[in-house]
Specification:
It is a single chain. With 134 residues, the chain is α+β, with helices and mostly antiparallel strands. The chain folds into two domains: 11-42, no CATH class; 57-133. It contains three helices and nine strands, in the order αααβββββββββ. It has helices at residues 11-20, 24-28, 37-42, and strands at residues 57-62, 69-75, 81-83, 86-88, 90-93, 96-101, 104-109, 119-122, 127-133. Strands 4-3-2-1-9-8-7-6-5 form a nine-stranded antiparallel β-sheet, with no helix packed on it. The longest helix is centred in the first third of the chain and has 10 residues, at 11-20. The radius of gyration is 24 Å and the shape is elongated.
Amino acid sequence: MGMTPAHAISAKYRQQPEQSGCTQVTEAQGCDIHKSKAENAAAGFGSVATPASPYAGHWIATQPQTGATVANIRIDAKDQVWVNNKKLKAKKSDGALLVKDGYITYTIQGDRRLKGEDTWFDSDAGTRGIITAQ
């Protein structure tokens, strides 16, 4: 006699949480498995995935000879930049984020595999150094 395997969850139900972005926990809290991920995110359940900016984070520009801090750089998920708590405009060029503050240009590479290429350059003093992620 052959036995048919029993399944606790139907194939249709198994797809609904995935398509809705719900988990068992959020479903118990009111996440609707019959709605889309975006609809549930708008209702406060989960979030619509957004790619993280490779530039986002806290960075420190240092003087190579002394190790002194030249600047504290903060970049948010929307690539907005603050250098020493002053909001500055940034532009992207060849995969790098460039920020100018007076004579100093800060360059942070978008490709995180490139090591030692996050740098700053002071065109007035002719000095340069590295920028490290914190």
